[in-house]
Amino acid sequence: MMELKAGIFTVAMLAIVLSSPTTAQKSPPAPATPVLPPAPAPAPAPHHVDLADLLSVAGPFHTFLEYLQKTNVIETFQNQANNTKEGITIFVPKDSAFAALKKTTFANLTQDQLKSLLLYHALPKYYSLAEFNKLSTLNPVATFAGSQYTLNLTYDMGTIQVKSMWSNPKISSSVYSTRPVAVYEVNKVLLPMQIFKSDPPLAPAPAPAPDAKASDVAPNPTSGKAASGKAKADEKNSSYQVGVSIITYLALAVSGGLMLFW
């Protein structure tokens, strides 16, 4: 009986020892949450040049810009300018270039012809001034208006000319040239033979400026007559005075001679 109690006591003690915190098996720690690197910042959006704003402040290109907006060609150019893969090159005539042509030159064009004329002033790719030397070897060069609307480019010691059928303007300055947009000023309007069958007439030459030395006040018609009459009166008076002087001299001479005989 004593042995049975001793066995039960031993088993109970063993159970207590095994269930104590010091002998209990520790559970493995939970895995740590991995720290991820911060997400990269999004790439900045490409800078797009607003062609309408550029032409409105870089002018005088108001006539060309008005035609672009009237025909919505400005949207076509803007879409191409936003295409950073190809870009665009635009030849912009000054206002004086349009003023040199008769107003009927463009008033008689159809809407499609006017759009083609404007598209004729651009190349569907960006070209820096330095690239025109190589581009000139590829003549004729197709324009934005289509493969039948071509230009012949010449590059001579830095002078670049853009030849169409009825005009041969030169690039007078670079308005803007940063890829993908190039805008160059030309001193004449490009006139393709597909639209103009003959050389368009020029506008009448402006009247010469008045002489700076001339008086701004128109002379009174009567003032010329008065001046002429005064001159004649002065001349007559002068002749009369000379005549009186001669007669007086002769009278004195005669009287002097008579006195000698006395």
Automatic annotation (TrEMBL):
Transmembrane segments: 240-261
Function of the protein: May be a cell surface adhesion protein.
BP GO terms, sorted: plant-type secondary cell wall biogenesis
Residues making up the signal peptide according to the UniProt record: 1-24
Higher taxonomy: Eukaryota, Viridiplantae, Streptophyta, Embryophyta, Tracheophyta
Compartment annotation: Cell membrane
PANTHER family: FASCICLIN-LIKE ARABINOGALACTAN PROTEIN, FASCICLIN-LIKE ARABINOGALACTAN PROTEIN 7
Highest taxon in the source lineage: Eukaryota
Biased composition (Low complexity): 210-230
Pfam families according to UniProt: Fasciclin
Domain FAS1: 48-190
Region ranges (Disordered): 204-232
Matching Gene3D superfamilies: FAS1 domain (2.30.180.10)
One Gene Ontology CC term in the entry: plasma membrane
Membrane topology category: Lipid-anchor; GPI-anchor
Species assigned in the record: Panicum virgatum (Blackwell switchgrass)
Protein name, per record: FAS1 domain-containing protein
Chief localisation class: membrane
Family assignment from sequence similarity: Belongs to the fasciclin-like AGP family.
